[in-house]
Amino acid sequence: MANGKNQGEGNVASDARYRAGARRFVDEGRVADAAADARAAVDGPEADELRAAERRGKAAVAEDDDRDHELDPVPSFWTPLHQSGWDRIKAAVKLAMGSHPSVGLDWDLARQAIRLGYGAAAYWPDDKEWGEPLEGRLRAEWFALGHDIPWDEARKLVRYGWDIGRKDFVG
Predict the structure, then answer these.
(1) Would 55 be classed as within a structural domain?
(2) Which residues contact 130 (CB under 8 A, 6 or more apart)?
(3) Residue 117 is part of which domain span?
(4) Residue 2, Cβ density class (10 Å: 0-12 exposed, 13-18 middle, ≥19 buried)
(5) CB-side exposure of 126: number of CA atoms within 13 Å?
(6) What is the pLDDT of residue 155?
(7) Phi, psi dihedral angles at 28 (to 5 degrees)
(8) Do 106 and 98 form a contact (C-beta atoms < 8 A)?
(9) What backbone torsions phi and psi does residue 112 show, to the nearest 5 degrees?
(10) pLDDT at residue 86, as a whole number
(11) What angle (nearest 5°) sits at the alpha carbon of residue 123, between those of residues 162 and 69?
């Protein structure tokens, strides 16, 4: 809410604050320190507690493969329009991924990267070509979401999703 009024679908002010914060976090070079802190926590005295929390979290979101996990982080720009499109095409994408074992990731991880690229195609329709400005925004979004795979591995899947989304949303 801004000035006590609901902005409706897609809170522009919150989106701008989130993006500025994520960009500042990356620009200030804080990603490596945050990753080191996370590694230290996972390898430190609280490792067992963190693993138990991870198992509880995964158990809480375990559901049918045909649906997304309700607690999965979604891109800051994600709206019901993105979800509707994704719900429509994800089964076909999963089948296509199954026919390409060279991807090297299970569907649960791959779909998160593909979904980011897919949604970005609709959110930034003026980006007609994959380039550094678009990739930079997507990389920052990926880091902000805190996914388990590094950007270098996710990039090709995000790009794959973006290509699908360009066809689906832009035509």
Answers:
(1) yes
(2) 159, 162
(3) 12-170
(4) exposed
(5) 1
(6) 93
(7) -80, 0
(8) no
(9) -65, -40
(10) 84
(11) 70
Instruction: Over range 2-9, report the average pLDDT.
Output: 50
148: pLDDT strictly greater than 80: no
Q: Residue 3: inside a domain, yes or no?
A: no
Distances (CA, A) of 65 to 68, 106, 107: 7, 12, 9
Cβ–Cβ under 8 Å, residues 159 and 117: yes
What are the tens digits of pLDDT across the range 94-141? 777 765 544 556 777 788 889 999 999 989 988 999 999 999 999 999
Residue 2, helix vs strand vs coil:
strand
- 84 assigned to some structural domain: yes
| End-to-end alpha carbon distance in the chain | 34
The domain total for the chain is 1
pLDDT digits (tens, 9 = 90+) for 54-101: 666 545 444 444 445 555 788 888 888 888 888 888 888 877 776 554
In eight-state DSSP terms, residue 101 is G
Confidence at residue 116, expressed as pLDDT on a 0 to 100 scale: 93
Return the number of other C-beta atoms located less than 10 Å from residue 35's C-beta: 12
Q: Does residue 80 sit within a domain?
A: yes
